[in-house]
Design brief:
Residues 205-375 form the Hflx-type G domain. GTPase that associates with the 50S ribosomal subunit and may have a role during protein synthesis or ribosome biogenesis. The protein is an alpha/beta fold. The chain folds into 4 domains: 10-117, GTPase HflX, N-terminal domain (Rossmann fold, 3-Layer(aba) Sandwich), CATH 3.40.50; 122-196, no CATH class; 202-373, 3-Layer(aba) Sandwich (Rossmann fold); 375-423. It contains 15 helices and 15 strands. It has helices at residues 28-40, 66-78, 92-102, 109-120, 124-140, 147-150, 166-200, 217-225, 269-274, 280-283, 299-313, 333-345, 360-373, 387-395, 417-423; strands at residues 10-19, 45-55, 83-86, 105-108, 152-153, 164-165, 206-211, 242-247, 254-259, 287-293, 321-326, 349-351, 375-383, 399-404, 408-416. The strands form 4 sheets. The protein has a 6-stranded mixed sheet, with helices on both faces. α4 (109-120) packs antiparallel against α5 and α5 (124-140) packs antiparallel against α7. The protein starts with 9 loop residues before the first strand and ends with a helix.
Length: 426
């Protein structure tokens, strides 16, 4: 992890390689804007400039061609840049060659996101997950970059065997550290499972807020709960799930509201794996509220990225979802009216502003309907020996009607799919 000094911010420059042969379809100017926001989310960096660099294809050893390399070097030296952030993947060899050619430190998109996650992670689990992701990433960067990595280690062969290279020793040290972290994480995850099991005993539906990073989830969470969760115009402001038990206004039901880490396109694979446990809250949700920044030019693409991640997590298609079109206060009158009209035509869309509060009442009504409608009636037959199961149903107020039979009890039960699944484990 890079360390920045307290007395002066590191002068950084952001480059977005627009590789024509890749044909991503995304607007390179907007991609650069997001990359700059990522850089600004990391304390201790001063973004001195940002450019889109058009490339017919990436150069295998240097990423950029010779002429472009010299042109960029002149800019880096003129602006006294200390760190170059490349918005995209940079191979270990490319990173080493570019750092040598330009005489500066270089981070690719994955490295930058890891730095931000490391800075933001607040819970024990979050810290462990980031450390594991960083080590997995670092392991791929063990190229013969500097002379100490090219040295053969001699000796008597007791430590690592004769002639083991430093790079192999480094790799083995990382693997050992990963095993240690994995064990620690397993313990933490078990503790979380216990917390989740105790929450499962509470008959409150779970409502999970999801969305692209900086879509306004934390602001919405604060407005719904009155909590002071960090909500700033900054990417990845929330990295650990925050949960609050709230009573929905207007005499609505009690729910557990969960705010989750923001999703982002091209999230590094190391982090998708590392943060799966953080996003497990979404899998347990009775209702998913997908928050979109409707004022963003690429709101549709961002929404598609969020849906893809939800699918990869294994979120059930049957889980009810509400789409929130947030930040309507940022639209001009004509665009705002068009958004409100489109939202009104859709059953599961709410247009609002979490900042001003406009549209919040309708959202609360929709959440109330979403968690109360998601129940059904079942008829259960329990034997006289199933006292524990019967007590479990009564503790949660799920029994609507009961009559005694020769063999036990026949109960009419109104419950959600989640409660029905829990009952199967009693």
């Amino acid at each position: 992890m890079t360390q920045t000094t307290d007395h002066a911010d590191t002068r950084a420059w952001v480059l977005h390689p627009d590789i024509l042969s890749a044909g991503s379809g995304r607007d390179p100017a907007l991609a650069l804007e997001e990359a700059v926001s990522l850089a600004e989310a990391l304390p201790g960096l001063e973004v001195c400039g940002a450019d889109v660099v058009r490339l017919p294809r990436p150069h295998p050893g240097m990423l950029f061609g010779k002429g472009k390399l010299e042109e960029l070097k002149t800019r880096i030296e003129a602006d006294e840049i200390e760190l170059v952030l490349v918005d995209g993947p940079v191979s270990p060899v490319q990173q080493r060659n570019l750092e040598r050619a330009w005489g500066v430190k270089l981070l690719d998109r994955t490295g930058l996101i890891l730095e931000i996650f490391s800075d933001r992670a607040a819970t024990r689990e979050g810290v462990l997950q980031v450390e594991m992701a960083a080590l997995s990433y670092q392991r791929t960067r063990l190229v013969r970059a500097w002379t100490h990595l090219e040295r053969q280690r001699g000796g008597l062969g007791f430590v690592g065997g004769p002639g083991e290279t430093q790079i192999e020793a480094d790799r083995r040290a990382i693997d050992e550290q990963l095993v240690r972290l994995r064990r620690q994480l397993e313990k933490v995850v078990k503790t979380r499972e216990l917390h989740r099991a105790s929450r499962a005993k509470v008959p409150f539906p779970i409502v999970a807020l999801v969305g692209y990073t900086n879509a306004g989830k934390s602001t919405l969470f604060n407005r719904l709960t009155g909590a002071e969760v960090m909500a700033r115009d900054m990417l990845f402001a929330t990295l650990d799930p925050t949960m609050r038990r709230i009573e929905l206004p207007g005499g609505g039901p009690e729910v557990i509201l969960s705010d989750t880490v923001g999703f982002i396109s091209d999230l590094p694979t190391e982090l998708v794996a590392a943060f799966r446990a953080t996003l497990e809250e979404v899998l347990a949700a009775d209702l998913i509220v997908h928050v979109r920044d409707i004022s963003h030019p690429e709101t549709a693409e961002q929404a598609a990225d969020v849906r893809a991640i939800l699918d990869s997590l294994g979120v059930r298609e049957t889980t009810p979802q509400i789409e929130v079109w947030n930040k309507i206060d940022r639209l001009d009158d004509e665009a705002r009216q068009a958004v409100l009209t489109r939202a009104a035509r859709s059953d599961n869309v709410q247009a609002l502003s979490a900042v001003t509060g406009e549209g919040m009442d309708a959202l609360i009504e929709a959440i109330t309907a979403g968690v109360t409608e998601a129940t059904h009636v079942s008829v259960l037959r329990l034997g006289f020996d199933a006292g524990r199961k019967r007590a479990w149903l009564y503790e949660r107020g799920l029994v609507e009607e009961e009559r005694q039979t020769e063999d036990g009890f026949e109960l009419s039960v109104r419950w959600s799919a989640r409660q029905e699944a829990q009952f199967g484990q009693v």
